[in-house]
Design goal:
Elements (H helix, E strand, L loop, with lengths): L1 H28 L6 H63 L14 H13 L7 H8 L5 H38 L1 H6 L1 H8 L12 H26 L13 H20 L18 H13 L1 H16 L13
Length: 331
């Protein structure tokens, strides 16, 4: 049982160490002011944008094909309408020359569809030349009726406008997706090593999703457990040693205490600034992760000494002793 527990602690410590190393490499490549979590979200949005971009490009192909079909139908319809109106002009001239119908005369010749209405009215009144009746009957057919053709042409124009609007919306979506992918290029390159971890067994534990500032706390606790485990195993393997370690009969309590002491030391150090070679607060996530490993391992392995150190600092903090004032300025 102890061996299995030791292997578990070692495994998770190495796992956290691996992720922290990858995160520090990522942070060194990101632009100042861009956090690890923001970079991951940016890359995630870019992956979604790539999928959307592919879908929108396929949709654009369909929209273009639909627009071309509408344009072809509109051209054919315009050709039929032109041919139909040419026949109406010829019939109008024929009826005018016959002077059989008062609807059409040289003084008030109707135009456009009104001309077709006049021709049809003359046909309905039976005041058209006999030779024109067959041609008028052909124009009454919905396929050649100028009124029907004009209505279909108007509907097609609205359909073409809708197709143009759909293409414009599609172009806007494509442009937005391309911009999202382009903006995430640097973050995506920086996160390549983390992506490799995500695709491996490491991704199953979700450690790569923990921000570096929080990974420091996790790594410190695991380092404390690992340090306590090292010292405990030394005492178990070499019980008669001349090392100045405090022995204990509790295997589990010593390891747990090591992790807790390491976190306590981390909190004490995190209260200050300008530590571990950084001028920023520890929780900024920009510090050397190996320093946290060293502190955690030492605090966990020598938990009795660090407990005394914490006690001494606590005594100093709660004491009523005030520091002496500065000397007066020299005159």
């Amino acid at each position: 049982m102890r061996a299995l527990f030791s292997l578990v602690i070692t495994f998770f410590f190495l796992l956290a160490l691996l992720v922290a190393s990858a995160q520090q490499q990522v942070m060194s490549q990101l632009d100042p002011g861009v956090s690890y979590s923001v970079a991951r979200k940016t890359v995630g949005d870019a992956e979604q944008a790539r999928g959307d971009l592919g879908a929108e490009l396929r949709r654009r192909t369909g929209l273009l094909a639909e627009k071309r079909a509408l344009e072809q139908r509109a051209n054919d319809l315009d050709s039929d309408l032109y041919s139909s109106m040419a026949s109406v002009d010829q019939l109008s001239e024929s009826i005018e020359h016959s002077q059989l119908c008062a609807r059409i005369n040289a003084d008030g010749q109707p135009q456009g569809l009104a001309k077709w209405g006049a021709v049809y009215g003359c046909y309905r009144d039976g005041t058209v030349p006999a030779g024109d009746k067959d041609e008028i009957q052909a124009l009454i057919d919905p396929a050649m009726d100028p009124t029907k053709l004009t209505e279909r042409s108007t509907r097609l124009k609205f359909d073409l406008q809708s197709a143009d609007m759909a293409l414009a919306d599609n172009d806007a979506r494509i442009k937005a997706a391309q911009e999202t992918v382009a903006q995430a290029a640097k973050a995506s390159n920086a996160l390549q090593i983390v992506t490799l971890l995500d695709d491996s067994f490491v991704g199953l534990f979700g450690f790569t999703h923990i921000p570096p500032s929080l990974m420091q706390i996790t790594l410190c606790f695991l380092s404390g457990l690992f340090g306590a485990l090292l010292i405990t195993l030394v005492l178990l393997v070499y019980p008669n040693n001349d090392l100045s370690f405090t022995s204990t009969n509790s295997f589990w309590n010593r390891i747990l205490l090591g992790g807790l002491i390491a976190v306590g030391v981390f909190v004490m150090i995190a209260g200050g600034v300008g530590v571990l070679g950084s001028s920023e607060a520890i929780l900024s996530g920009q510090n050397n992760f190996l320093s946290f490993c060293a502190i955690g391992m030492l605090a966990g392995g020598f938990s009795d000494r660090f407990a005394k150190w914490l006690s001494d600092n606590a005594t100093m903090l709660v004491s009523n002793t005030q520091p002496e004032g500065l000397p007066p300025p020299a005159v």
